[in-house]
Amino acid sequence: xxxxxxxxxxxxxxxxxxxxxxxxxxxxxxxxxxxxxxxxxxxxxxxxxxxxxxxxxxxxxxxxxxxxxxxxxxxxxxxxxxxxxxxxxxxxxxxxxxxxxxxxxxxxxxxxxxxxxxxxxxxxxxxxxxxxxxxxxxxxxxxxxxxxxxxxxxxxxxxxxxxxxxxxxxxxxxxxxxxxxxxxxxxxxxxxxxxxxxxxxxxxxxxxxxxxxxxxxxxxxxxxxxxxxxxxxxxxxxxxxxxxxxxxxxxxxxxxxxxxxxxxxxxxxxxxxxxxxxxxxxxxxxxxxxxxxxxxxxxxxxxxxxxxxxxxxxxxxxxxxxxxxxxxxxxxxxxxxxxxxxxxxxxxxxxxxxxxxxxxxxxxxxxxxxxxxxxxxxxxxxxxxxxxxxxxxxxxxxxxxxxxxxxxxxxxxxxxxxxxxxxxxxxxxxxxxxxxxxxxxxxxxxxxxxxxxxxxxxxxxxxxxxx
Length: 467
Known about the structure:
The chain is an alpha+beta fold. Helices cover 57% and strands 18% of the residues.
């Protein structure tokens, strides 16, 4: 930290700018990573939601078909016909029963766009249907193509694979459901109902559902029975592998099929033993919802570039006047009595730098005033020293002169003149010698010389006692 603080201001600003830029890149990268994870989570949710929508539509179709097993529960007459054996009955009674059952089944068939044919085989061997002439053939074909059966008492169901059949000599792709029919008050089985669905009509319905970029598949034990238009040439794993995926907690997996990677979500339709697969190419999976992030990333890069170059330009704009200012200060050496240099601010200089330069120029003016005062003080000091020399010359002259007077007076026998001259000479010598500290003995001697002169001036006027 100390080494950083010792760097020039321009370098400190540049390092700070790049540090801010680096931290911003890290924060942006973390945010983008979190956004990508959130997009991936949303895409998986989208695949799961798409599967749930398809499953709901299929459940709705199968629920309408499943209700047909309870046809006899809403019409007691039908239950009576199923229990009553036709053998031994008169032709008119048999025809009446067949016409009634056929009309009911035709009406029911007309209410469901996917149902083509309904046949009921009673336990006594009687057959009823909306196409009675095709009924025996339907039962044989259905039994031959049965693929899946659910054995739960009073809730059994059997389902065929998709197979080709004819109804009134018209070819169809059929999917047949088979349900047992039980009586209301008894546990006896009354018969079995066979319901043929038009699988082509179901495919058209599936194609009308939202496709987007998701490929949808319906798969049973024999393989794919439906693929959406968006599936292209995608080849799914076998049913065994799809079962394993469906058994996982979230039913999703990322697989590589051929030279492409895919995201799969598998949902099992339990009633049909079908597997509903939503599949999306991994590139589309990652690109979905990324457009906004890409636009944001581009704007962030542009903004960072602008901040970087703009910051360097601004730092240079701020630091250049400061560098010039520092260079000028470096040239000022007052100890050598060098006159400070004034700085002229340019027109485009910022207000803060201009105020700094103005303050510096005022400081220079004050320094010049102090220099002048220093010269004046030095000159005055020299003059004072000269005067002091002069003042020192005069006392020495008087001191020497008084010594001469004292010697002459002593030669001529005038003791008072000699005594006054000698005392006054000693006083002048004491004053010239000066000093901040004096000895008590010297001060007393000075007083004695002064007292001797005053005694001669004023004889017998006072008396001095030293204790």
